[in-house]
Write a structure and sequence with these properties.
465 residues, alpha+beta, seven-stranded mixed beta sheet, two-stranded antiparallel sheet, 67% helix, globular
Amino acid sequence: MFGWIKGASFKLKVALAPLCAIACLVAVGFIGYAANNSLSSSLVGLGEVRVPRIIRAAELDQQLRSIHILVNQSLAWEGAGFKAVNIEELDNRIGRHMLDYQQAIQEALKDRTLDAAERAQLEIMSREFAIYRRSATDALEIKTGMLGNAVFYMTIIEGTYKRLHAAVDGLIAHERALSSQAVTDARALASRNLLTISLSLGLALATAVATAWLMASAMHADFRQKNQALKQAYQAIEEASLTDPLTGLRNRRFLEQQLDADISLCLRRHHAWQKSADQPMPPDADLVFFMVDIDHFKHLNDTYGHAAGDAVLTEMKVRLSEIFRESDYLVRWGGEEFLVVARGTSRNEADGIAERIRCSVADQPFTLAPGLTVHKTCSVGYASMPFLPHHPDALDWHKIVEIADQALYMAKRDGRNGWVGLSAKSDTRFDDVLRWLTSDPKLAAMNAGMSVSRGARAEDAAVAT
C-alpha cells in the first residue's frame, strides 16, 4: 500500500490527501503556510535591510581611505616641490570628496530604522569627520614645509583619522554582526517551523498516516529551497563587503584578506632559489603590482557628468579583465585608480603587460551613450615583490604599493599616456630605498641605485636606465 503511494504521481498524492483526512490537511496546511510566510519575511528583511547597510558601511570605509590617501599625497607633493597648480587641483578634489563624505554620513543618519548602536557610530563618525575635515583643511592651507606639516599631521590629523577609522570599522563590524545574527535567526526560525510542522504531522498520523506522509514530503522540498536561499543570502553579504559596488571589482579589504597566502608562497620560492646554486629564478616566483590611473578623469566628469565617469570606470574593468588572468587580483584602489596584482608572474614580463594596459585604454574610445564616445589615456606604474630579490623579506607589500605609486606619478610627470617600472639593481641597498620613498622620485631613483623602465605613446621609444 505505502509502496504504491510512494510511487504515485504528485497530482495523485494531492488528490488522495483530502480523502484521508480533510480536517488534518487543512490544519497542517495552515501551519506550513504560516511558517513559510515567516521565513520568507525574514529573508526579505535580510536582503532589503542588512545587505544594503553593510554595502553602505563598506563604501564609507573606502571613501574615508581615499580621502586620507589624497591628504597625505597633497602634503607629500608640497614637501617634494610639485607645481602649485597641481597641488591646488588636488586640494580642490580633496574638498569635494570631503563634502560628499559628510553628506553621505548625514543621509545615513536620516534613516529612521537605524538601531541605537548604528546611530551612535554614525554620530561619532560625523563629529570626528568634522574635526578631521577642519584639521586637514588647515594643514593643506598652512603648508609651511614638510617638517611643519609632519608635526601638524602627526599631532592632529592622524589621531583624528584613527578615531574616525575606528568608528567606521565599528560600524562595519556591527552591520556584519547584525547580518550574521539575522541569518542565524532565520535558520533558527526554519528549525522551529520544521519542528512545529513535524509535531503537527505526528498528531495527524493518528488519524491520517497517508496525509502526514504526503505533506512531509512536500514541505521538506520547500524547506530545502529556503535553506539554500539562506546560504545564498549569507554569501551575498560576504561578497558585498569585499566588492566595489560600481565596477564589481574587488576592494582593499579583499586584498588585505587574500594577499598574505600569495606573499608566503612568493617568499618561499625566492628562499628556495637562493639556496639552489647556479639555478635560474623560477618564471612564476614574483608578484607584480600595477598601479593604473585614468588621465584627466576630473575633466571627463566636469565635461560629461559623473554618469559618464562611472561608465568609463565600469568599462575599465572589462579592459583590464581582458589583459589579466582570472587568478590575478583586480582592485579598485580609489577614485579613478586601479591596483592589479599579477600572481605567479616573472618581473621580466612586466614591461609588456604595462604596455598592453596603456594600449587597451588609448587605442579604443569609450562609449558614454549611443553615438557619443570619448578617447582617454592612462598612466601606469609598477613594482615587483620581492623588490630586493636577494633580500626577499626586506620590504612588505605596502611598501611595494608605495613604490608602484611613485612610479605612477613619475609616468604622470613624464606627460601621461605612458608607464614607468621601478626595480632594484644588484647593488641597490635597503636603506637607500627607504630614503627614496620620502624624497622626490624622479631625482632620487638613480641615487637609490634603482633601474627605471619607461614606455610612452606610440611615437615615443621605450627606454630603460
